[in-house]
Amino acid sequence: MKDNIDNTLDTTTEETAAEKPGLWQRLTGWRGRKNMPTGIKAGLIILGFAALMGLSALLYVIIPADGMARTAIDFPNEWNFGWDVIKFIDNIVEWIVINWDPFFSLINKVLLHGILLPLEKYFLWLPWWSIPVITGLLAWRTVSLKFGLTSVAFLLLISLAGLLDLASQTLAITLTSAMICVIIGLPLGIIAARSDRFNNTIRPILDGMQTMPSFVYLIPALMLFGIGRVPAVIATCIYAVPPIIRLTSLGIRQVDSSVVEASKSFGTTAWQLLSKVQIPMAMPTILAGLNQTIMMALAMVVIASMIGAAGMGTEILLGISRLQVGRGVLAGMGIVFMAIILDRISQGFANRPGSSTSG
After folding, report:
1. What residues are paired with 258 via a beta bridge?
2. 252-306: per-residue pLDDT in tens?
3. How many Cα atoms occupy the beta-carbon half-sphere of 53 within 13 Å?
4. Is the CA virtual torsion 159, 164, 165, 166 positive or negative?
5. Where does the chain hold its CATH 1.10.3720.10 domain(s)?
6. Which of 112, 232, 281, 352 could anchor a disulfide with 309, C-beta 3.0 to 4.6 Å?
7. What is the DSSP annotation of 118-172?
8. Cα–Cα distance between 112 and 230 in angstroms, integer?
9. CATH architecture of structural domain 86-125+161-355
């Protein structure tokens, strides 16, 4: 009896799958032969496309308007509202600049004098030899002795090229931007992990932030904060914050549901579950997001030199503007060395045993 029921269910399932229209039927609406050869389908698609192009050419030739054939098939100029959108956005930015100037001035002072300049002055105050030594020790403890020696060699080359001070300025902007991204990104990632509605809302926003050309971020930052380091930090934060949000949410969502249920059965509160179970187990993924944020921040800092960000990006910009190829190449190699060091050290933190789920 059971075998008969199973056979009946299997037969019904196969019939239902057979009756379900395929992609070709859904696109064409034709319910005829379902086993049409692929070559015939491709030929029909090509013929349809050729017919469409021929119709367009025919319209171009025989249907003139106002003495010009192209106006019959071109997009009507009176439908174009792009300039109205441009003026609307400009008016909004102008209103914000005028009415919110005290607020943005406060942010400018806090970031510049409270975080950025003290960090930069500290890096510049350190003896030149201490930076390779400290970096080498950190790379040794987080990655390996071989990479520790490699980091020392890279920083010695940067010092010999006369770029150590510029590298310190670039590092200060990068670390400041990464710190702000963590402060903003971690809470948003946690909320996105705990709320599907918030996650679905913020996902297209993050997609837009990651696909938007990086030069676009310089425009509002320049309008709101002027020229200097602070607009560079703001533009860098907007560009670099999506990875830490995405991977924080992903890491928490990937925590084993059985572990979460076991923790709840022991009476843990929501805060205890988050701080003692979910975040520690998601830490490798969160640190991977931090790694990507640091890399994107370093890349954006170079572009932000166009609006007054000090550092090695300025050397590249001067090399381009003055056609000094060697100057640009030397500064570019220094940025590559910095990127390698920051990337491997941040990955080393993510791969440490203490940051694994077993820890």
Report:
1. none
2. 998 888 888 888 888 888 888 888 888 888 888 888 888 889 888 888 877 888 8
3. 6
4. positive
5. 86-125+161-355
6. 232
7. HHHHHHHHS-TTHHHHHHHHHHHHHT-HHHHHHHHHHHHHHHHTT-HHHHHHHHH
8. 6
9. Orthogonal Bundle (1.10)
